[in-house]
Amino acid sequence: MASEFTGTGDPARSMALLWRGAAEPGPRPGPRPGLDVDRIVSAAVRLADAEGLVALSMRRVAAELGVGAMTLYTHVPGKGELVDLMLDSALAEMYPDERSVVTGGWRARLEAVARANWDLFLRHPWALHVATGRPPLGPGLMRKYELELRAVDGLGLPEVQMDLLVTVVTGFVRGTVGGVQEKADAERVTGITEDQWWAATEPYVAQVFDAERYPTAARVGPVAGEELGAYDPERSFEFGLVRLLDGIGVLVERPSRG
């Protein structure tokens, strides 16, 4: 469940801050000011990377920078605008080599899109808990969207299907990568690993499990457990990505009106 939402701040202030670089003609002469928006966003991202969004507040970011909270408000009006800036900053890191999503076959391009989104959430797990129903329309997001659309351009698909295809791939990644953080959170909260948890519960499961009532689970579970062990989100991602691309191949070969 999302713990923060983009678009909760003042839209005009958010847009002005997101596109501040485009509005500035270049660096001004003289010494750089001790505090600016970039430094604030970087500090907020570092804090969220280390402790999650639960730790994020204007006061805490100010403390990380060694300034008073009111000083932050002279640069960023509030937490809503700050979350927009943080997410756009994280998205701007994606695709350092833009060729990965614009060269080669469509399958390789979409795989590059999926892996880039997977890597983003591993670097910044907090981004998974930011709901983007009102996306921060900054340069980082717009570049990401442009490049991901290029990955499916030239396939003869209508524009709506191009957009939906990108959404399907990125949505799949968002759904599977959550398992990585869930495992880490469970170990942190309980103090035991998933393997240790299964080892502790297995004797009790063996006592109460009714193989006659659940015959399919009795057949599949032991085989899957022996090969996969505890839940493996990376394995689910790799398996699902191949199946997803196979399905997309049907659409590419026989475009539909859907």
UniProtKB/TrEMBL annotation:
Residues covered by the HTH tetR-type domain: 34-94
UniProt keyword annotation of Transcription regulation present: yes
Gene Ontology BP annotations: negative regulation of DNA-templated transcription
Any one GO MF annotation of this record: DNA-binding transcription factor activity
DNA-binding region (UniProt annotation): 57-76
Keywords: DNA-binding, Transcription, Transcription regulation
Record-linked InterPro entries: Homeodomain-like_sf, HTH-type_TetR-like_transc_reg, HTH_TetR, Repressor_TetR_C, Tet_transcr_reg_TetR-rel_C_sf
Keyword DNA-binding on entry: yes
The protein's name in its UniProt record: Transcriptional regulator, TetR family
